[in-house]
Amino acid sequence: MNKIRIIARIDVKNEFAIKGVHLEGLRRVGNPNEMALDYYNNKIDEIVFMDAVAAYYDRNSLSELIQRACTDVFIPITVGGGIRTIGDIKNALKSGADKVAINTKAVQEPDFIRQSSKFFGSQCIVSSIEAKAIGENKWEVYTDNGREPTGKDVVEWAKYVAKLGAGEIILTSIDKEGTKRGFDISLYQNVATSVSIPVIASGGMGKGGDAVQLIKNVNVDAIAVASVLHYKLESIQEIKNTLIENQIKVRI
Amino acid sequence: MKIAVIDYGVGNVRSILSAFANQGANVFLTRDKNKILDSDGVVLPGVGAFAHGMDGLNKYGMVEIIKEYVESNKPFMGICLGMQLLFEESEEFGVTVGLGLIPGRVIKLPTKDSQNEKLPHVSWNELNSGKIQWSDTVLESIKVGSDMYFVHSFVVQPNDEDNVLSTTEYSGYNFCSSVKKDNIYGCQFHPEKSGKTGLKIVKNFIRMCEK
Predict the structure, then answer these.
(1) pLDDT at A56 over 70
(2) CATH number of the domain residue B133 falls in
(3) Which chain B residues are closer than 8 Å to A92 by Cβ?
(4) Which range, of A57-71, A172-186, A233-247, B109-123, averages the lowest pLDDT?
């Protein structure tokens, strides 16, 4: 098994890092660059910046933030929110991002995943999927930070984006996001067994033990952590220690 | 002391520039022949497909310049795709001829389906000893087992084991994760994305360029 990557997810609105519950009720939690540097110094494995309102306001404003992060944070950086054109991806990469996360545009025009992964390579294209439970073992794809239902089935959509060339999937459970009550294990079970690309579980982690519960049951590749770090509930080292104690391999 | 990063239109180079600058190098992106040949060290970056990379090198006339630079015996380092391009050929999307500076070829990373191992290999993974001792190389003072950041689906297979600086295991297969042939280095992982240990490798390369 791969080492499980522990990813800090920093949602951004204007110049502030924010955090909500179920992707709503956003509160400011700090300066995204300072937070990224702090997490980097404490051995986080990767950073994801998500512009929480980009899709909504039809804009993409993370370039400066990425450029700044790139001068002192030497781990992979993914940027998401408002990525709509090949030009947007070029800008993000030029600013120093390693990967882009695409959601709304992919739903509107799935071929964008194929085009962009062909152009930049699959390793660079992350499909961001927001999932909301609509029945037993059934989830619907949402866009625009949990605002817009699409009618698409999450498992089928995940298979489709993988086929189109996405290199990874970051799968956010809207139901669990921000709750700190643990991951939606059956969601990740259903998706991770359906695709052969790496899956990043995002939403619901309140303590290292939640990650252990998930990883013991599902072959996910990475977990995205937000509240735990932003509210300093546990340190990165504590989370990693919990995983190590449970025989889960991580970068030390 | 000047380090040139070759600009051939492939991938994200800002982090490489940033990592070298962070470690004190006078580093710049260029495709100017004189600037490259005049540098104390040269880095060939790159992500994406092999054929696309070779197209870029050919388009900007970089192939001959790289070969001329390498003959000067000054340090040269290829990173990720930039390492793969050093080899003779790649089987990615049909056979494509590479720079041929190191004997060997580039193959798809063999994985065992039974273990549900995934491609691309996107992960932090450990460096293990290769045929070459690490002292006086870019891996000087790096601990065996150190974690580096990898993201790739293809790996190099040097013909000569004596060119293998480190190996890394994925899905039960030990692949060559860094190479050294005389003044030429290559690493499959991204030192510029591998935290403080990665920066140490960058620093080691800079020191080599100072000599």
Answers:
(1) no
(2) 3.40.50.880
(3) none
(4) B109-123
| Cα angle, residue A6 at apex, residues B79 and B172 outer, rounded to 5° | 60
Q: Which long-range contacts (CB under 8 A, 24 or more apart) does A223-226 make?
A: A223/A4, A223/A5, A223/A6, A223/A7, A223/A183, A224/A7, A224/A8, A224/A9, A224/A48, A224/A170, A224/A172, A224/A200, A225/A6, A225/A7, A225/A8, A225/A9, A226/A8, A226/A9, A226/A10, A226/A11, A226/A19, A226/A178, A226/A202
Q: pTM (2 decimals)?
A: 0.93
What is the number of structural domains in chain B?
1
ipTM for the predicted complex = 0.92
> How much is the pLDDT for A150?
97
Nearest CB partner across the interface for A74, out of B47, B151, B193? B193
Contact A251, A43 (CB under 8 A): yes
B46 lies within 8 A of chain A by CB: no
The answer to whether B93 contacts chain A (CB < 8 Å) is no
In a domain, A250, yes or no: no
**Whole-number Å distance between alpha carbons of A179 and B45:** 41
Question: How many folded domains does chain A comprise?
Answer: 1
Q: Is residue A215 part of a domain?
A: yes
The pair of three-digit structure tokens given for residue A127, joined into one six-digit string = 């499909």
Q: For B15-29, what is the mean pLDDT?
A: 96
Is residue A194 in a domain? Answer: yes
Q: Which amino acid is at A209?
A: G
Q: What CATH code is carried by the domain that includes residue A227? A: 3.20.20.70
